[in-house]
Amino acid sequence: MNSSMINESSATTTLRDNAEVAEALGRSYTAGFVTEIEMTGLPPGLNEETVRQISAIKQEPAWMTEWRLEAYRHWLTMPKPDWAKLNIEPIDYQAISYYAAPKAGPKSLAEVDPALLETYEKLGIPLHERAALAGVAVDAVFDSVSVGTTFRKQLAEAGVLFCSMSEAIREYPEIVRQYLGSVVPTGDNFFAALNSAVFSDGSFVFIPKGVRCPMELSTYFRINAQNTGQFERTLIVAEEGSHVSYLEGCTAPKRDENQLHAAVVELVALEKAQIKYSTVQNWYPGDENGVGGIYNFVTKRGDCRGDDSKISWTQVETGSAITWKYPSVVLRGDRSVGEFYSVALTHHYQQADTGTKMIHLGKYTKSKIVAKGISAGRSSNSYRGLVKMEKGAEGARNYTQCDSLLIGKKCGAHTFPYMEVKNPTAIVEHEATTSKISDDQMFYCRSRGISEEDAVSMIVDGFCKQVFRELPMEFAVEAKKLLEVSLEGAVG
Amino acid sequence: MNMLKIENLHARVEGKEILKGLSLSVNAGEVHAIMGPNGAGKSTLGNVLSGRDGYEVTAGSVTYNGVDLLALEPEARAAAGVFLAFQYPVEIPGVNNTYFLRAAFNAQRKARGEKEFDSMQFLKLVREKLKVMQISDELLHRAVNEGFSGGEKKRNEIFQMAVLEPQLAILDETDSGLDIDALKHVADGVNALRSPDRAFLMITHYQRLLDYVVPDFVHVLADGRIVESGDKSLALKLEEHGYAGLGEGAAA
């Protein structure tokens, strides 16, 4: 049996017909400040020389330079993707600077520029190990470079490698060479090819066989410089039987022009290994008129390469003017498990086209998708997901649940589930709901003394509960607060 | 001074006049039953008093403890001690019942300038109230009204009332859809909350609730006005003769 199904459902409904809703979708973006620091970088523009320069600045081996150039040449031949449900102003790739870094180059944590430490302090990410979040190691990436990684000594004792990608290319070239591009090939898609050519930094994690990583690992990405794109590259390799939980956070200053963020994240889980990857994405979303904000075009993919391995993506997406992102899992090993838990909130003129792909290759593989979309203002929020059961996916199962919550009458929510089933024993289940915060719910809360704003965040929080449960505890609290801030004034 | 004084209240819903000059006075410690046929305006009265959107007051006044009640937002009315037990309690998926109730409780305290309860203090209060209401604490761990049976929803309303301790409790057809055992449970809960400081407005279609919660006054609401008032015997009379023919000779 070979069946496939494409189904589109869209809905636009109303919470309240009053004018206040339309105008009151103001949000305060607290991470919108700019750090004054002396920078060095490349002038705007992109050609082979730019690629060579980036590679040279990073003192990369020749094979790496070649790898980048190959990706660049491939990129030149690729058409820009336009199939997602997004309105995108044409991007001038020659107007972007592909490398920006604080002038005083990367040093040890103790010598990091105080202005940078202060930046991360303000964002709630203290980099001093004494003040650091208990039990969380942080790699801080500022524009194109990593400015510091905490708890490296403790991690090294456990055999865990956690450092910036630039450093990994220099220090652990054999591991990088083996795995880089093995999950997301350089020519995978337009933005992945661009990233492969010009990526500047990102995090590298290697968990050796049998090791359970003793603490949460996290990377905090900060875009600061103007007219600069951030192209980070993250690689996480979990060897046989190892475990790791990793979290990334992202913010950027408020600016009127759009900035490009095109990341690639690759995860490799060998036999019985488990990787849990959580994202709290809060890039600057643009203002209430849709001016400015980050273009977030990201390729994230995990490969359950070994039997009985597991990769779990959890994401809370509240930022960016445009988000184009489908964290995926290739279920290669038998009985491997892929999960995707997502909350995507859009406001004002934000556009999000996000979802996942679960590619079942191995026998008795299982995947679970829980996607929650919240749309407010004039935003557009789409779930796009592919579940593919290949011929060998004997007894494979997928369960997908997509729920949309609409706030206001000018927003849209869309669901595009794609299914391709090539094995008759595979089971694919899909459930989708669209709801709005009803007048009845609002009145019920208010009649008990709860203000409109608190009622909205309470209802939204309840709607997201299934996903928040998957986040590490500190971040679940963070995510909840972030949604509250993002929904400020959502109901008049 | 009356706790609640409604004078010549006129209200419209979607352009249609439902309340047409309703007057009623309620004192602390009293239990008033509002009875009447379908479409008389019973639920409209409850919704107007608690401030639901879509109910337009065109004339008349409502004074509550000396304040113009109609000028207050619904949440301010709640903080001032007005509580509506819903005819159809609303489900809020994913929001824990205890969490919801504590948010409501603390929002009201905050609005009144009182200190908020921390989770330990609140849990202690909830435990006490559970005992009085004879409700299993299993209800507390579920999401607000989600998957509750009709009886559980109504008992949850009464439980919320017990925790929030309103001065004026409006019960909108709290007896509807309940079997006799559930009705008794709800009635026991209401009786336990009767006090000299608290007034009840019980909106009901049937007199059977009044067998278990004996009112001080019974009013008949027909065509948007109170057409007859009396004591409990009026309810029995209605049971016997029905609503037909009521209002003749009643003071306008």
List its traits:
heterodimer, A: 492 residues, alpha/beta, 13-stranded mixed β-sheet, ten-stranded mixed β-sheet, 11 helices, disordered N terminus, B: 252 residues, Rossmann fold, six-stranded mixed β-sheet, four-stranded antiparallel β-sheet, 8 helices, 12 strands, 35% helix
Q: What percentage of residues of chain B falls in helices of 4 or more residues?
A: 25-40%
Oligomer: heterodimer
Name the CATH architecture of chain B: 3-Layer(aba) Sandwich
Domain count of chain A: 1
CATH superfamily of chain B: P-loop containing nucleotide triphosphate hydrolases
Shape of chain B: globular
Biggest interface pair, counts = A-B, 23 and 32 residues
Strand content of chain A: 35-45%
List low-pLDDT spans of chain A: 1-27, 130-134
Sum up the overall morphology of chain A in one term.
globular
Could you explain the architecture of this structure?
Chain A: Residues 221-463 form the SUF system FeS cluster assembly SufBD core domain. Chain A: Residues 153-213 form the SUF system FeS cluster assembly SufBD N-terminal domain. Chain A: Pfam families: SUFBD_core, SufBD_N. Chain A: This is Fe-S cluster assembly protein SufB. Chain A: Belongs to the iron-sulfur cluster assembly SufBD family. The complex is a heterodimer of chains A (492) and B (252). The model of chain A is unreliable at 1-27 and 130-134 (pLDDT under 50). The relative contact order of chain A is 0.13. Chain A has one domain (3-486). By secondary structure, chain A is an alpha/beta fold. Chain A is built from eleven helices and 25 strands. In chain A, strands 1, 2, 7, 8, 10, 12, 13, 15, 17, 18, 20, 22 and 24 form a 13-stranded mixed β-sheet that branches. A ten-stranded mixed β-sheet of chain A has the order 6-5-9-11-14-16-19-21-23-25, with helices on one face. Chain B is of the alpha/beta class. Chain B has one domain (4-241): 3-Layer(aba) Sandwich (Rossmann fold). Chain B is built from eight helices and twelve strands. In chain B, the strands form three sheets. Chain B has a six-stranded mixed β-sheet, with helices on both faces. In chain B, a hairpin with a 2-residue loop joins strand 1 (4-13) and strand 2. The mean pLDDT of chain B is 91.
